[in-house]
TrEMBL record:
InterPro entries tied to this protein: 6-blade_b-propeller_TolB-like, Strictosidine_synth_cons-reg
Keyword Nucleotide-binding on entry: no
Location of the Strictosidine synthase conserved region domain: 117-196
Family under the similarity heading: Belongs to the strictosidine synthase family.
Domain of life: Bacteria
GO terms for MF: hydrolase activity
Record's protein name: Strictosidine synthase
């Protein structure tokens, strides 16, 4: 792991709504995000606070989390309440692609990836705890996260992996041979093979210094950016070594205690071998609980589950 360098804040852009949990940049340098009230927003010119402008693309009627730009121009939305959605940015039309798997309702859809063959892979963070009680899943550490696949033309998803520790961000390798999946509760990235002799199997990709959230791939030749929603917490590590009854009791308490994120924030950029390209951190940050990061031009744009806007930071030099 590279020693961290400074994450340099430049300015803040208010969105007029809380919780831009995931941020993705399109080919024109605009940033798309979903917020707490169910709207999908597009931020124009995020690098200049004087001319930055926000427009509403759609309303999901739920709570949008992870976003993915589909090759055909549509926007895939993982909605924590409604499942996997498809949004037409031109008309604002919202269509449900999948809201059940194996007869069970999908209730914590988290992040998605669209592949050239038309298949969509997406994660479910928890089968036990809804979004507003996400801390319960992290504390209980029961591993009910899933990786799902929606085949082209299919109406119901299939389960590919189970037992994941708060499955979260998702990104594809440059050659499309594997997926990288964030397990927030285990502080690691997992590789899921799509091709080759290990197709359908998972293994370690990278261990991390904090809890990963959303992932974003910077083009076919760029790195995978990883948002670290929080640093490693040694007391939580100790709790995870206790029995299920102790963890369940702790989770019941945790969901009723107001969560106050710390002031240390960080992002990583990794190559397809799991090697660190950039490791950026900031202590005593006013912008907290960074759950996503993308790049546009000379800037990094950060999203957060809690903040009412995005933070724009300096992009690190190449290499």
């Amino acid at each position: 792991m590279h020693p961290p360098t400074a994450l340099v804040p430049l300015h803040y852009v208010s969105l007029g709504a809380r919780g831009p949990e995931d941020v993705v940049a399109d080919a024109h340098g605009r940033v798309l995000t979903g917020v707490e009230d169910g709207r999908i927003l597009r931020l124009h010119d995020p690098g200049d606070p004087r001319t930055a402008r926000v427009e509403v693309l759609a309303e999901t009627g739920g709570r949008p989390l992870g976003l993915e730009l589909h090759p055909d121009g549509a926007l895939l939305v993982c909605d924590a309440e409604r499942g996997l959605l498809r949004v037409d940015p031109a008309t604002g039309t919202v269509r449900v692609l999948a809201d059940t798997v194996a007869g069970e309702r999908i209730r914590f859809c988290s992040n998605a990836v669209a592949l050239p063959d038309g298949s969509v892979y997406f994660t479910v963070s928890s089968r036990r705890h809804p979004l507003d009680r996400w801390i319960g899943d992290i504390v209980e550490h029961t591993g009910t996260g899933r990786l799902l696949r929606l085949a082209p033309g299919a109406r119901e998803a299939e389960v590919l992996l189970e037992g994941l520790q708060f499955a979260n961000g998702l990104a594809a390798s440059a050659d499309g041979s594997f997926l990288v999946l964030a397990e927030t509760g285990a502080r690691r990235l997992t590789r899921y093979h799509l091709t080759g002799p290990r197709a359908g199997h998972a293994g370690p990709f990278a261990a991390l210094p904090g809890m990963p959230d959303n992932l974003w791939r910077e083009g076919p030749d760029g790195p995978i950016w990883v948002a670290l929603a929080g640093p490693r917490v040694p007391p939580l590590d100790l709790l995870h070594r206790t029995g299920p009854a102790v963890r369940a009791a702790a989770a019941r308490i945790a969901v009723h205690v107001p969560f106050r994120p710390g002031g240390t924030v960080g992002v990583l950029a990794l190559d397809d071998h799991g090697r660190t390209v950039h490791h950026l951190t900031r202590r005593r940050s006013g912008y907290r609980m960074v759950t996503s990061v993308c790049s546009t031009g000379e800037h990094l744009v950060l999203g957060s589950l809690r903040e009412p806007g995005v933070a724009v930071c300096a992009r690190p030099a190449a290499g």
